[in-house]
Design brief:
Length: about 100
């Protein structure tokens, strides 16, 4: 949001909203309702439905499972938890490393 509370034009609107509303985050992937999942950058209606449908069978435990559900992890990782923990790639980036660094 800019100084007049308008969306910044050079930033994805969903990402801008998420950054302006940090009190809504992080969202727990394994328990959040559909409407809450939709607030997360990188999660659209299709991937939110896949997440909700998969839950009765098993809980998500890692980033690869979320990617297979259609979640864009590079955008979502700063706004989610998986079983109460931030994704590994988000923790690595916070320390100044790329997710692929060894």
């Amino acid at each position: 949001m800019d100084e007049k509370d308008n969306l910044v034009l050079d930033l994805d609107p969903k990402l801008a909203w998420a950054r302006a509303n940090p009190h809504f985050f992080p969202v727990e992937i394994n328990t959040a309702p559909f409407e809450t999942l939709l607030r997360v950058p990188g999660i659209g209606p299709t991937s939110a439905r896949r997440i909700i449908r998969a839950r009765p069978k098993n809980r998500f435990t890692d980033e690869e499972e979320l990617k297979r559900a259609g979640l864009v992890l590079s955008r979502a990782k700063s706004f989610i938890t998986i079983n109460g923990k931030r994704p590994w790639s988000a923790r690595w980036e916070q320390l100044g490393f790329s997710a692929r660094s060894s």
